[in-house]
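WARN retry 2 of 3 for item q-0093 after timeout on previous attempt; input resubmitted unchanged.
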Amino acid sequence: MAQMEASGARTASSGRGDGPPPGGSAAAWLTRNAIDVLPEGELERKLAQGRRLRIKLGIDPTAPDIHLGHSVVLTKLREFQESGHVVVLIVGDFTARIGDPSGRSETRPVLSLEEIEHNALTYQEQAFTILDREGTEIRHNSEWLDLGMKEFFRLARSMTVSQVIERDDFSKRLREGTPIALVELFYPLLQGYDSVAVGADVELGGTDQKFNLLRARDIQRAYGQPEQSVMTMPILPGTDGVRRMSKSLRNYIGVTEPPAEIYGKTLSIPDSALEVWYRLLLDSPLPSELPPRDAKRALARALVSRFHGADAAEEAERGFDRVHIEGRLPDTVPDFEWVQPDSSPVHLPALLAAAFGITTSEARRNLAQGAVRVDGTRVSDGRLDVSAAELADKVIQLGRRRFVRVRIVSASGEAEL
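OK item q-0093 returned
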């Protein structure tokens, strides 16, 4: 089975010790923060067999980055690894062509094969910021899901239409008259077949995955395999403290984001989200003796330390204080060269897009919201073009934490100003 090749990425531990306490129950330790563990007693029976269990998680690469929301389930997988079991991480490069309808009010947009392949590579590498490489099998469900019609008909017989449409998101869409593509009905079948293909003993997922995970048991039974145990984990709210963490909602923190970004974004969460973030990300109660501001700083340090190390956490905190408390620029500001072919004004949305890796639409939105400053002065709302002289060797700030120093150069590559 395919293993990921080694790279220089930093691998974080689970941050939750090295297994159950001496004399403690492995099952109790592994299930202590889960929502559902089904059927009741099944996981305990599997653990009692004394063999290495195959713990499955499937992730469709519909976006290029893994964020803290994904880390809740990935950390649970790491705990299984620390207990001696093997993790089977399935990259859903085939099922991503359909899109998981779980929790969706409409059909997902179709991704190109190039997008799926790019995202899959990123997912694999970023997963190892949490998982142990040696205890992980990486599989792609395109290995087995390009089924012939005979095999697909056999698979389809393992589930009824009434089972499929009983799921909440489908039944809601039917009541509201929202279209459901026929291909979406196939998704639970294909995810369940993944469990057959890899011989899963246990499958993990978020609470929104409960239907799919349970249906996989039916499919394993239809194929004459022992049925997997199912474990669902809580869903982490995003930085807004309300909606689930999602890149599309812009309320996420990526596990490979720079230390300063992880630190600053963590400090932005509302006080109401502190308890659940501590519980799901640190496996710790919210410190009752700390005011919210100090609790957020402790949380931010812990998260940066987990993914970048303690030194990076200290530097991120010093940098945050320097900019946001002392009102100074960061210690280091990266240079950004802007080629200006003539004496015409610089179009700010284009410059911001190139300097910060955002779209021009995002750049315009930030300008309209007053989130752009030049040497500390907010750019006036509606101003999209400025002279090169106003930007040369100046520091542009986007939002609260992103800075570049603009170097204006001519088309020949020489400094213009």
